[in-house]
């Protein structure tokens, strides 16, 4: 499973990263959470507002902070 957190490193982006790490730890999923801070890479996903969450190449959220529970739901899908 590939999880990417897209954002330039702001406080909201860091919070989403923490929520994603917590979600995979609680689920016991073998996955890495990658921060993507390069603006060109962020745009390549079609994301115009950060933070954003991308799971297995699919943008799940953009421009908001999803909860740990919401991220866990996406990981289970």
Q: Mind telling me the C-alpha Rg?
A: 11 Å
For the largest beta sheet, what order do the strands appear in spatially? 2-1-3-4
Binned, the helix content reads: 40-55%
According to CATH, what is the class?
Alpha Beta
The assigned CATH architecture is 3-Layer(aba) Sandwich
Shape descriptor reads globular
Please outline the major beta sheet.
4 strands, mixed
What report would you give on this structure?
This protein is an alpha+beta fold and 77 residues long. It has a single domain (2-76), classed as 3-Layer(aba) Sandwich (Glutaredoxin). 42% of the residues lie in helices and 25% in strands. It has three helices and four strands; from the N terminus they run βαβαββα. The chain has helices at 11-27, 39-44, 68-76, and strands at 2-6, 32-36, 52-55, 58-62. It has a four-stranded mixed beta sheet.
Summarize this structure briefly.
This protein has 77 residues and is an alpha+beta fold.
What's the SSE blueprint?
Layout: E1 2-6, H1 11-27, E2 32-36, H2 39-44, E3 52-55, E4 58-62, H3 68-76
Parallel strand pairs: 1-2
Antiparallel strand pairs: 1-3, 3-4
Helix pairs in contact: 1-3
Feature tags:
Glutaredoxin, alpha+beta, globular, four-stranded mixed β-sheet, 77 residues, 4 strands
